[in-house]
Amino acid sequence: MTDAPIDPSRAPVLTIDGPSGSGKGTISRHVARALGWHYLDSGALYRAVGIAASWADIDLSDASALVRCTFDTEIEFGDEVGDEPRVIVNGLDATDELRTETAGAAASAIAAIPEVRAALKDRQRAFRRAPGLVADGRDMGTVIFPDAGIKVFLTASADERAERRYKQLKEKGVSVTLPGLLREILARDARDANRAVAPLRPADDAVRIDTTGLSIDAVVERVLALLPAR
Ligand SMILES: Nc1ncnc2c1ncn2[C@@H]1O[C@H](COP(=O)(O)OP(=O)(O)O)[C@@H](O)[C@H]1O
Ligand SMILES: Nc1ccn([C@H]2C[C@H](O)[C@@H](COP(=O)(O)OP(=O)(O)O)O2)c(=O)n1
């Protein structure tokens, strides 16, 4: 399959890629709100397919069933709960299930299947609309929006990312342990970075920001400072 050429005059895109817990979602939502731009949480699409597959009892090793499931799964973003939109999968509210580490691990596993990635490409590009789009994920700057005007790659130490996730899940009442989360984060990092297709890596033209020890506001400020003066 060849990709359709991307018209560079279309709505501007700011991509924010990085590993789990680097703050992509939080920073992207703040930046999108500040700019009045649309927001794409590409990880939610992979998580939604993983959840639809588990609801349909599809084994994570059954690549052809997973590809069919990707085409068949309806995913909608609804009203915001807290500062995150509800995610409706095949008509059912999957918001809470989506954020679990089990859903993250399933998403990471199916995301290594090239046909699943190809099946989600157009759905992700359809989020590009005026006045602009902030897109977060693993391959936003490298594969999905290679012509994005601004590309950011967020990192943070694995210990800090595990601690952030620990606090986040505890606040949601999910029972987790810090060593368990650190192990899961390191396993996901390795799988996402070492897969053959669209591995997690900074685009050559991405600005890297190490968020270890930085506040959310400080990171938002650094990202907004990359945009031309408004
Ligand atoms: N710079 C930061 N400093 C401290 N906590 C942060 C920072 N960025 C994000 N967080 C917190 O870390 C948690 C994980 O962030 P999230 O945006 O979900 O990361 P990602 O989308 O990269 O997995 C959230 O609870 C968020 O509030
Ligand atoms: N653009 C993307 C987004 C997510 N994925 C895969 C790989 C990730 O481990 C899972 C879950 O991604 P998500 O961004 O929701 O996870 P984190 O919030 O970073 O923990 O999906 C991907 O391969 N490509």
Briefly summarize what is shown.
The chain has helices at 24-35, 42-55, 63-72, 95-98, 101-110, 114-125, 140-144, 158-171, 178-194, 216-224; strands at residues 13-17, 38-41, 75-81, 84-89, 92-93, 133-137, 150-155, 207-210.
Explain what this protein looks like in three dimensions.
With 230 residues, the chain is of the alpha/beta class. Helix content is 47%, strand content 17%. It has ten helices and eight strands. It has helices spanning 24-35, 42-55, 63-72, 95-98, 101-110, 114-125, 140-144, 158-171, 178-194, 216-224, and strands at 13-17, 38-41, 75-81, 84-89, 92-93, 133-137, 150-155, 207-210. The strands form two sheets. Strands 2-6-1-7-8 form a five-stranded parallel sheet. α1 (24-35) packs across α10 (216-224), α2 packs across α5 and α8 (158-171) crosses α9 (178-194). The structure holds adenosine-5'-diphosphate and deoxycytidine diphosphate (YYY). Deoxycytidine diphosphate is lined by residues 20, 25, 42-44, 46-47, 104, 107-108, 111, 137-139, 188, 192. It is an enzyme of class 2 (transferase).
